[in-house]
């Protein structure tokens, strides 16, 4: 091979390698932070926040009033962005709270219907690929709720269910598009003493899950323990089993990642 051909081959290889190494850079640019994101919120005059409506203690709609930790964090974040107190943020209406559920929350964030999610959103590697996530503001575990003991051992929610070991063939209700089913199966795979094969039914809201449990359509309601505590009543009980410890975080699009500076300040405080 003469020198000219060698030079052409080397240049071709160099060009191909350069193109190959440039691909991740392009992906990084697609996730580039928009420095105007905060100014856009200020011009709009409010921070639009997606919150749950059915999680007592975290984000719950009681009549026309939202209450809970995530609601307070929404106002705290807005106070940081607009440089006012939390009380002023509430008085001036600097937060618009929009009800979301496990089925539609990601779509509403992607579509720009909300600026940020404070919606019991578990931090996972998969979700960090889709959205920019804040520091964790709450850690929880997944639990299991059943109806209290009844006379018939074959009935749904009967006294036969005392732990995960009793769930073979039972129907577990889980939230649609949540991490619950996967977390349960992963937990079972790591256990050497218990092997069960339950059936999973998905529901779009916690209210629907709870109604299904009460009606006997499912044997178990499985969601985060903090959520189960909000639905506990005289006819139900939460089993001792806990699994899949998980952290909640706020979510924004990569374009609006600049908002996390203020959101993390609110969380840290």
Tell me what you see in this structure.
The chain is of the alpha/beta class and 269 residues long. It has two domains: 37-139 and 248-268, Periplasmic binding protein-like II (D-Maltodextrin-Binding Protein, domain 2, 3-Layer(aba) Sandwich); 140-245, Periplasmic binding protein-like II (D-Maltodextrin-Binding Protein, domain 2, 3-Layer(aba) Sandwich). It contains ten helices and twelve strands. Strands 7, 8, 9, 10, 11 and 12 form a six-stranded mixed beta sheet that branches. A three-stranded parallel beta sheet has the order 5-1-6. Helix 3 (69-82) crosses helix 10 (260-268). It is elongated. 35% of the residues are buried.
Brief summary of the model shown:
Helix content is 39%, strand content 25%. The protein is of the alpha/beta class and 269 residues long. It has 2 domains: 37-139 and 248-268, Periplasmic binding protein-like II (D-Maltodextrin-Binding Protein, domain 2); 140-245, D-Maltodextrin-Binding Protein, domain 2 (3-Layer(aba) Sandwich).
